[in-house]
Amino acid sequence: MNSRASVPAPDSPLGRLMATLPRAGRVEWIGLRPAREVAMVEVAQVQAATGGGLAGDRYKGGNGKRGITLIQAEHLPAIAALAGLAQVAPAILRRNLVVSGIPLVALKGRRFRVGELVLEGTASCDPCSRMEAALGPGGFNAMRGHGGLCARIVEGGTLRLGDAVEAL
Question: By the number of CB atoms within 10 A of the CB, which of 59, 65, 97, 121 ranks highest?
Answer without folding.
Answer: 97
